Structure prediction request, 361 residues.
Amino acid sequence: MPLWSERLISELQTLPGADHSYLKQLCAPDGDEVRESLADRVSLLGEPFALRARDLLHSLDNRRFFQGFAEVGAVSLLHRRGFAIRALRGAGPLIEMAHADGRAFNLAVLAFVHQTRPGGDELTRERLVQALSRVTSRHRFVVLIRRWLPHDFDPEPVRRSLELWLAQVGSGAWEGRYAAYEDEHIALEFCLTGEKVRGGGSPLAFALGPFVAHRAMEVLEPRVVRELDRYNAAADRTLPLVVAAVSDQPWGINHGYLRDFLYGRPTLTSNEGGSPRFTFGGGGGPCAFRDPLYRNFAGMLMIDRNPTQPLMIRARAHLNPWSPLRLRPTDVGVSAFAHAGGAAADELCWYVGDGEVVPLG
Prediction:
C-alpha cells in the first residue's frame, strides 16, 4: 500500500487554496522524489510506527504533518546506527528504541513549525534595506532590526519617518544619537554614526539583525522542560529519555546557548590537540543534564531541514555524560558534543562523526 495514493495526489494537486500546506506542496508534480524517499523510509521502519506516520503525513495541518516528518527523520537517524523501534507508548507518543546490545531508551520527538519563511524573510529584510538606502540625508546611520519583519511589510512609512527624524537632527531640534520605530509588527532602532554621507554614497551604513538565537531558545527551552516534567510524572519512566527537537527551518541557535541550558557554563576550557575541550565542574549554574529531577535525560538531538536539500536533514547531538545511559557519538553518527574519551566525566568535546547533514531516505 503506497504512503500516498495516486488519487490523493491528484486531488491535492487540483485542490484550490491550501498552498501553504506541506502536504499539498509534497504532492506537487516536482515532489515525486521526496515522496518516494519518505515512503521508503516509513516502510523500512515498519509497523506500528508506519501506521502512525501515515496518519500524520496525510494531514493538511502543517503541525500534524511536520510532527510526522520529524518522527520519521529522528527515528531514521537512530535506525541507521542500529537502534530499532520496540514500542510506541502513550498518546505523545514515546518511541521506545532498543539496540542489539541491550541498551534501550525512550525517544520524545518535539516538532517546531516556524511562522517565518526562509528566503522570504531575507527578501523582506532586503526591501527594508533598499528603502532606507534611499533616505535623503547627509547623516549616516545604522539600523538594528529587533524582530523579524512580516512578509507583507511595507518599508515606505519607516523611510518617511526616518527622513523626518534626520531632518530634525540636521536642524538641531533632536538631541542624542538614537531613535526607534515600533508597532505591533516590527521593532527597529536607529543610531547615528557621526559621519556624513560622501559623494553619492548611501546614508545607511549597515543593518544588523534580526538575531534569532535568543528567540529560538525562548521557544525551545520551556518546551523541552515541559516534556521532561511530563516524563517524570509518567507511570513508566524507568528508561532514559532522549529528546529530539526538530525544526522545519534552520535553528540558528549557537552552541553557547544550548551548552548553558544543558550542561551549565564550563569552569575550564582548553585547546588540546587543536580541538576545544570544556570542563564542567558543577559550578556553572543550573542546567538540565545535571538536575537531579532530570536524571533520566540522556541526550538531545537538534535536527532541522536543510533548506536547499529537501532529501537531507541536518542534525547535531548533545549527549549527557552523567546519565545512567551514556550514549556514544557513534550511536548517533552526526556531530556530537559528548564525554571526551579517556578523560574525567566532566570533560567534554565535539566529535565530528559523519558531519551534520545526513540523507533522509
Q: What stands out?
A: The CA atoms of residues 110 and 295 lie 20 Å apart. The mean pLDDT is 88. Residues 213-233 form the longest helix (21 residues).
